[in-house]
Amino acid sequence: SQSENSYSTKLDKKAFKASVISHLHSTLGTDENKADNHAWFKATSAAIQELVLNRLRTTQKTHYMNDTRAVHYFSAEFLMGRLLSNNMHNFGLFETADAALKELGVDISDVLEEEPDMALGNGGLGRLAACFIDSLATMELPAIGYGIHYENGLFRQEIKKGAQIERPDSWRDYGNPWEICRPESTQEVPLYGYVETKYGSNGNIQKEWHPGSIVKGVPWDIPVVGYGGNTVNVLRLWQSQSSSHFNWDVFNAGGYVDAQRENIQAETISKVLYPNDETEAGKELRLIQQYFFSACSLKDIIRRYKRAHGDDWTRFSEQVVIQLNDTHPAIAIPELMRILVDRAELDWDTAWAISSKTFAYTNHTLLPEALERWPVRMLEKILPRHLEIIYEINHRFMQELEKKWPGDNVMKAKLSIIEESDEKMVRMGNLSVIGSFKVNGVAQIHSKLVKENLFPEFDQLYPNKLTNVTNGVTPRRWLKACNPLLSALITKKIGDQWPVNLTQLDKLSVFADDKTFQNQFMKVKQKNKEALAKEIKAITGIAVDTKAIFDVQIKRLHEYKRQHLNLLHIMALYKRLLKDPSYDMHSRVFIFGAKAAPGYTLAKTIIYAINKVADKINNDKRINNKIKVIFLPNYRVSLAEKMIPAADVSQQISTAGKEASGTGNMKLALNGAVTIGTLDGANIEIAEEVGAENIFIFGKTVDEVAAINKAGYKPYDYYYNNSEIKALLDWLDTDYFTPEQPGALSSLKRSMLEGGDPYLVLADFESYSKANEALDKAYKDKDRWAKMAILNTAKMGKFTSDRSVQEYVDRIWKLDTCKV
Ligand code: 26W
């Protein structure tokens, strides 16, 4: 196509074929006759990687020669998904590769299916980081992502008899074609030990940390290909390794096993991603992970800076900006202070002036249980010098507060980095705000709540520090690559610039009433639904009617996201149909994808409940296939890419004030799904863009939620006053859905009554039910629905991650593009 040619990196079908075959021979040691899909995947990837590495070298040379200021995106998670299709699209080579493989007798989609997801993240925060580095490369901005090279990413989910089982995700078992090990850039990271006080060269008191152990960090680079293929940045992920990997004395004394034990401990650091999303568990290994990758990354940055600027620290914050993706890497703040004060021997004020101009922090959640706090005792043991530095930062900060608000100890207690609870804690959020020059939330409403509820005093103290940058998603992966049919239709209508200039989608608006375009648009949706239906059949064995409404809720399982509100409503529809077989509703397939944190019992019960209700409904002949409930196991990026293009309806139903932004909401609307949602996170901005007629908004607002909680929320009132709600909750308490396990769903009922229904499921139920009726009615009007779907796609221009990144660049990072 035109769009591909205009960006294409001169490699035609013939040359591509030759390259794949040559890799089949020389890289994989096989041939065209013996190769299976996996070998074709490896060979195709190797052919692409050759181009990637060329552009990577050119990019790095260019950045080096220009001594560019760069952003360093520190994130404990990068949820990259698969890279082959994305890299081919970004090089403009997808269609060439497709044709070349076809001539070799190979189906490209079979090849793409061979790639394991890089699931080095939990959910929204990790996927946002992946979208941002895609945008940074596309926009030709000097940037590097820093994170952890987890040996095991987020667990693989199996569903056995309705319940979630976790299995390890070993994504590198057969080798990863993209990553490059850079042993020459290995770093060493100290841990444990004690701090010695002594006198430095200038006669001042100096601190020296004598670590109790040292681990090595070995970097693996993943190239990040920008759209157009010009800039290729890197994602640098650290793998931990034992530093003295063989202790000969112990070994020779017969202590082979003891000598190995220490190795194993060091290597445990990057073994596994913590699967908790929004719950801080306070685990020592997690703190070590955070410090490990922050320290390796800082050393890497400083090594590069010194190569250009020697020991002159004055330009450090001009060259380096570090974005902290939530507080997970916040320990980098005292680490930089340690390097500047203890190692470079700068005085505190000079060091602080540099450090506090280097860091910026993004907050991704308001949930109290997700706000990181580390026991002082734990820090003291693992990072004794950092604890001292944190105390010093806090001490000076308290003096600043005393000047501003003399004698106000309440204020001091609130803003202190140290929480004076029974067990003293270090508040990483407070440290991040104090140590950063900018702090942002991720959607307008979220940033407003960050200012008003989470950090109001900080906002008073530092009037322009807190700001908003609304999230975005990359349209290259989340429309162009995942939805080729819709992409082709859009390009035919408005040209090929939309992937890099998403607001051009608005040009589709004038066709929203055009019958021909409506037909074309809905035909694409229909084809995508048929493809997903096939997938559903293959995975679950269940046949679904592709004329039914495809209603999708895909996200981590969490009470605040309220999958159980969706489930209660499904049960309500089922009950209405049983009671009155002529109950008027368009047939609907409810599709879920969700992983629960392994220790989150109620979340697991909700998964179990969805599967058990699904079993019952899917096999109940009485309701004539009006409802199907599908739980697709192991929700992940590559599955999302199949589900999103096929969705008619996008469920975004969190309790108002709880979902910081959401990004799935953007991806689904971009692909023509209509949202049913609360006024929460970015839903509010989506509603603003698409207009009230093109979205189904329901439920209590942020202010109403606050008022209800203040007055004392009584879920029993809803239970006793709404007979449908009562019947539904009581139903959960029978053995109707779990005959083999009576009472298995009772705890779900209890959570909404005795448990206090903390996320206001019952308070929002009726409003949700009404919104669903309106949605059902709208769907039955084919023209109206087509118009809504088109306008959802047309009005998503704002939500490209290019726009988010541009806002960071203009208002926080102050970067210049660097054409490669
Ligand atoms: C320490 C445990 C833990 C782990 C992960 C706490 C918190 C997190 C993340 C901050 C959770 C997360 O992914 N938050 C999501 O960030 C997205 C990107 O900004 C938002 O779109 C989602 O609304 C928010 O839930």
Short summary:
The chain is an alpha/beta fold and 820 residues long. The protein has 34 helices and 25 strands. Bound molecules: ligand 26W.
How would you summarize the topology of this molecule?
Elements: H1 2-7, H2 13-26, H3 37-66, E1 70-74, E2 78-81, H4 84-90, H5 94-103, H6 108-113, E3 118-120, H7 124-138, E4 143-148, E5 156-160, E6 163-167, E7 180-181, E8 187-191, E9 194-199, E10 205-210, E11 213-225, E12 232-242, H8 248-252, H9 256-268, H10 284-309, H11 316-319, E13 320-325, H12 332-343, H13 348-355, E14 359-362, E15 373-375, H14 376-382, H15 384-404, H16 409-415, E16 418-419, E17 425-427, H17 428-435, E18 438-441, H18 444-454, H19 456-461, E19 466-468, H20 475-481, H21 484-494, H22 515-540, E20 549-554, H23 563-579, E21 588-593, H24 601-618, E22 627-631, H25 637-643, E23 649-652, H26 664-670, E24 674-677, H27 683-690, E25 696-697, H28 702-711, H29 715-721, H30 723-732, H31 746-751, H32 761-780, H33 782-794, H34 801-813
Parallel strand pairs: 1-4, 1-13, 4-12, 13-14, 14-18, 18-19, 20-21, 20-23, 21-22, 23-24, 24-25
Antiparallel strand pairs: 2-3, 5-6, 7-11, 8-11, 9-10, 11-12, 15-17, 16-17
Bound molecules: ligand 26W.
Key words describing this protein structure:
single chain; about 800 residues; Rossmann fold; six-stranded parallel beta sheet; 25 strands; binds ligand 26W; Glyco_trans_35; glycosyltransferase; Alpha-1,4 glucan phosphorylase
